[in-house]
């Protein structure tokens, strides 16, 4: 595991007060096939930038200091992307586990490796967001103080207005 400067992020950061994030690069489905036969969905470009770059930018702007990128396939492509990008102040660690076939498998693998030290942010690698995560994290901590059994806060955001009518659905076919 390494950060954007080639050093082990797990070794260089203070373990106590680090805001961690886990990015699951794999979708564990075939929904975006055939686009994802040769690359993970998180590396599909949107406005000439891989989706993973938007996810990392969201975390960086929210003050996350350490990010664990978990992948079970296409690990070399993810590594190549991380080597090319620079995120000063954000330690990026890549964890590869080729046997994982679901989100549950990925989370169990991370737990077994004891990489997550406290509360963390869990995202997919194809997230495009400008959401500031700090208010949600602060709210989660307040809820935890009031209810020791609270282990998770989910964030859902309803889209503004619809950009297309349901009758405008269409099918794309590739040959």
Q: What layout of secondary structure does this protein have?
A:
Blueprint: H1 9-12, E1 20-24, E2 45-46, E3 49-50, H2 51-61, E4 66-71, H3 75-84, E5 91-96, H4 103-112, E6 120-124, H5 134-146
Parallel strand pairs: 1-4, 1-6, 4-5
Antiparallel strand pairs: 2-3
Q: Can you summarize this structure?
A:
With 175 residues, the protein is an alpha/beta fold. It is built from five helices and six strands, in the order H-E-E-E-H-E-H-E-H-E-H. The protein has a single domain, classed as Spore Coat Polysaccharide Biosynthesis Protein SpsA, Chain A (Alpha-Beta Complex), CATH 3.90.550.10.
Can you offer a commentary on this structure?
A 4-stranded parallel beta sheet has the order 5-4-1-6, with helices on both faces. Strands 2-3 form a two-stranded antiparallel ribbon. It is built from 5 helices and 6 strands, in the order αβββαβαβαβα. 27% of the residues lie in helices and 15% in strands. It has one domain (9-136): Spore Coat Polysaccharide Biosynthesis Protein SpsA, Chain A (Alpha-Beta Complex). With 175 residues, the chain is an alpha/beta fold. Residues 28-149 form the Nucleotidyl transferase domain. One of its GO terms (molecular function) is translation initiation factor binding. Pfam families: NTP_transferase. This is Nucleotidyl transferase domain-containing protein.
Q: How would you describe this structure in keywords?
A:
Nucleotide-diphossugar_trans, translation initiation factor activity, 4-stranded parallel beta sheet, eIF2B_epsilon, single chain, 175 residues, two-stranded antiparallel sheet, guanyl-nucleotide exchange factor activity, alpha/beta, 15% strand, NTP_transferase_dom, Spore Coat Polysaccharide Biosynthesis Protein SpsA, Chain A
């Amino acid at each position: 595991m390494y950060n954007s400067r080639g050093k082990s992020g797990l070794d260089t950061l203070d373990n106590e007060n680090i805001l961690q994030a886990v990015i699951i690069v794999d979708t564990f489905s075939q929904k975006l096939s055939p686009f994802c036969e040769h690359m993970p969905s998180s590396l599909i470009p949107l406005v000439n930038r891989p989706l993973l770059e938007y996810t990392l930018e969201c975390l960086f702007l929210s003050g996350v200091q350490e990010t664990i990128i978990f992948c079970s396939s296409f690990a070399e492509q993810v590594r190549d992307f991380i080597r090319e990008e620079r995120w000063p102040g954000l330690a990026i660690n890549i964890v590869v586990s080729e046997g994982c076939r679901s989100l549950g498998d990925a989370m169990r693998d991370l737990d077994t490796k004891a990489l997550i030290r406290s509360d963390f942010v869990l995202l997919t690698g194809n997230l495009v967001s400008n959401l500031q995560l700090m208010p949600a994290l602060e709210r989660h901590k307040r809820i935890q103080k009031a209810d020791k059994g609270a282990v998770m806060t989910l964030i859902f955001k309803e889209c503004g207005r619809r950009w297309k009518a349901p009758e405008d659905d269409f099918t794309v076919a590739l040959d």
